[in-house]
Each structure stands twice: as C-alpha cells, then as structure tokens.
Amino acid sequence: MTTLRFAERLRDLVGGVDVVLSDIWGVVHNGLVAFPEACEALHCFRQQGGVVILITNAPRPADSVQRQLRKLGVADEIHDAIVSSGDLTRHYVADHAGQKVFWLGPERDNSIYRGLDPVLAPLAQADYIVCTGPFNDETETAEDYLAMMTLARERNLTMICANPDIIVERGDRLVYCAGAIAELYRELGGEVIFYGKPHRPIYQRAMALADERRGQATPLNRVLAIGDSVRTDLAGAHGFGIDCLFVTRGIHAEEFASLDQLDPAAVRELFGHPPRALTRELRW
To answer: Which residues of the chain have pLDDT under 50?
Structure first.
C-alpha cells in the first residue's frame, strides 16, 4: 500500500463487503455516551443486507455487554451478534473446573463467572490468575501491581487476560485495562494467555457467527474490521487477513490532531501495517 485513503463515510467503503466486524468502545460509544452516527452507520449497513458482528475486549459475557449498550441507548438493530473476550475466558474457566482462581479485577466484572461457580482463592493459594482489569481503574496503573505480579511469577502462575486492551476512553479520560497488567507480567517472564483482539480466537468466533447468519462461508476479502486501536483492532485485522477502517477519534486522538497534515509515509510509520482507510468517526 503506497497511499492512504481518508474516508468520510462508511458507505464509500462497503461496496464489496458482506461482513463488518466492529469494535465497540471508542467506535460505538466512549464508555459514557453512545455515538448516534456510528450506530446509524452500522444499522444502514445491515439494512443493505450486510452482517455486523460486534467484537469487544470487554471482560464480560456478550449478554452483559448488550445490556450495557442498551443503557447507553444503543439499539439491538445495529448488530447481528456480539463476541466478547469475556465469553472466551469463561470457556477457559469452565474447562479448568476445580482449580483455584485468583481474580484480579473490579467487582463489576463478576458476570464473567455467572453459572461457573469457580473456586476463588488468594494469590498464594491459586492455580492460575484471571485478570479482568485493575481493582480500581480510576486511580491505579499497572505499576501498582508490580509486587503482586512478582509474587505470581515466583509461583509460576499462568495469567488469563480477559481484556488485552492497555487503555480505553472513559468520557474524556483514558483508563488502564487488564492488558496493561498482563504486559507487565509478561515483562517479568510470566505466562499470559490473551483472549480478545488482536488474537485469532475472537475473530474465528465472530466469523463463525457471521457465516451462520449468512448461511455460507464469507471470503476474507469481503470482510471489513472497524476499530480505534493500533495494537488490538488494526493488528488483529492484519493478523487475521482482513481490511480495517481505522477510527481516529479514539485512544489515538492526540496523534491525529492534525489529521489533514499526515502524509502516507508518516502514517505507515505510525501504523506499521496501514489500514484500508482512516476516518475521524464512523458515519454512514
């Protein structure tokens, strides 16, 4: 790719697209309010016969994600299905029934264990760790967990990261996620299993649902990912072999403050693997 395309509207990109795999946080909402034009864009794509699968690194089951979307005013009609990293983590916990889990994360993520009855234990007694985020993402960073992660490494515990995101928007602020702690643990030599973008299992699950909805297999060149993170959305799309529409209003907003002044070479340096197109915000 030698040039970079700036797209004002989704409709200009989806002429040969059957399936959209859209990020949620940063594209559809910012954690506090929904983005009406983004919701309209996904709805319009579906009305034209397209399939929309929302893929999210939320450390909660898909039905919990859907309830949050409804509270923010996001209509069910904008998507065909939701795939969350929380659901994939649940499969791991279910497959390791009876083992002791140290849960690192806020109480609001407790739906990740709904119906599983895990054996929760202190770190010193646990067989593995499930990390859904800091205990308090309003005030804490990964460095606050250095001592805890050092102890976990001494015990050779495997960490299951239920949200590979490093940071996300919450209103006009950025808050740390489970991925920040997981990367710290990896730097200490700890073993981490990541569920969610940019890793393949979440894309494989999303495409299985899309193909089921369409009643046929979908060629990857007819799939478009949408997201606002270089590390998760863009890298994940590239690794899976699909194009990506990159939304610049999200966590990289400061880097794109002068969007019209960026040349393709500068963007390739920033992205590594440039997206199919850039857009400030998703709209039809």
So the answer is: 1-2
